[in-house]
UniProtKB/TrEMBL annotation:
Organism encoding this protein: Actinomadura rubrisoli
Protein name, per record: ABC transporter ATP-binding protein
GO molecular function, a single term: ATP binding
Pfam families linked to this entry: ABC_tran
Residue ranges constituting the ABC transporter domain according to the UniProt record: 18-255
SUPFAM superfamilies: P-loop containing nucleoside triphosphate hydrolases (SSF52540)
One Gene Ontology cellular component annotation held by this UniProt entry: plasma membrane
InterPro entries in UniProt: AAA+_ATPase (IPR003593), ABC_transporter-like_ATP-bd (IPR003439), ABC_transporter-like_CS (IPR017871), ABC_transpr_LolD-like (IPR015854), MacB-like_ATP-bd (IPR017911), P-loop_NTPase (IPR027417)
Database matches in PROSITE patterns: ABC_TRANSPORTER_1, ABC_TRANSPORTER_2
Length: 265
């Protein structure tokens, strides 16, 4: 339903889905530079669900954008499913994204004049791929919107719109699905539905998901949490609980405050 990828039996190596090597991203002109990412290296296995957390300004969105090919690192390398994301041209990068990357945003980013089904099939059309409407319908049924195919986004709740956005990402069978605060605009119940959906995509269909969130409860749906501070990975928590994540975040915020006070930044 989500894809054709079979989930390998437990214990079988699934390979890596995403690798960052020494990724650095510096914004601004010389003399006025901000180091958003300061040498981030990580490897995420296929079929994993990772939450990225950190204080405001720690580089979470920049990390996601660089990993997804929406932004280019100043230094370092990004590999998605073993292929380097290095396209010399914007066109090459766009092609790479269309073939390998799914992205879900806080504000859904659906096209308001297209129906639910048209929104979901649009990325396939843009990529010049065959549009299998039956498959698109299947994915929409899977996210609980099989009876809303001909509705416009404005006729749906926020949670339903985000589920359409997830269906739109999944129908293209991305190697990695990125979410930047995908539940940030949703009420508690809709957020839970969306998180359960992402978890199912990982557990039942082997999807790889990387999600930035501020919410420890949202992070607890992931298999593990990466903590960022000042552009660096400063911690990793497998099998996270909301309580443990919240505690770690409190300590991290205090630590960052202390460091900033000491360095006068
Ligand atoms: N286009 C840009 N130009 C200049 N500086 C930028 C730009 N984008 C981000 N930054 C800076 O880079 C740093 C990291 O920003 P980023 O948005 O990645 O952090 P974040 O952890 O996602 O923050 P938040 O939780 O507040 O969304 C911040 O200091 C930010 O001000």
């Amino acid at each position: 339903m989500f894809g054709h990828k079979a989930v390998p039996p437990a214990g079988e190596a699934r390979g890596e889905a995403l690798r960052l090597e020494g990724v650095r991203r510096v914004y601004g002109a010389e003399g006025n530079q901000v180091v958003a990412l300061d040498g981030v290296s990580l490897t995420l296995p296929a079929g994993s669900f990772t939450a990225v957390m950190g204080p405001s300004g720690s580089g979470k969105s920049t990390l996601l954008q660089c990993a997804a090919g929406l932004d280019r690192p100043t230094q370092g390398r990004v590999f998605v499913d073993g292929a380097e994301l290095a396209g010399e041209s914007e066109a090459a990068l766009t092609k790479f994204r269309r073939q390998r990357i799914g992205f879900v945003f806080q504000q859904f980013n659906l096209l308001p004049t297209l129906t639910v089904l048209q929104n979901v099939t649009l990325p396939l059309k843009l990529a010049g791929r065959k549009v299998d409407r039956g498959r698109a319908r299947g994915v929409l049924e899977r996210v609980g919107l099989g009876d809303r195919l001909d509705h416009l986004p404005s006729e749906l709740s926020g949670g339903q719109q985000q589920r359409v956005a997830i269906a739109r990402a999944l129908v293209a069978e991305p190697r990695v699905l990125f979410g930047d605060e995908p539940t940030g605009s949703l009420d508690t119940r809709s957020a839970r539905d969306v998180l359960t959906l992402l978890q199912e995509a990982v557990r039942m269909f082997g999807q790889t998901v990387v999600m930035v969130t501020h919410d420890p409860v949202a992070a607890s749906y992931a298999d593990s949490v990466l903590f960022l501070a000042d552009g660096r990975i400063v911690g990793h928590q497998p099998a996270p609980t909301a309580e443990a994540v919240a505690e770690r975040m409190t300590h991290l915020a205090e630590e960052v405050e202390r460091q900033r006070a000491m360095t006068g930044v």
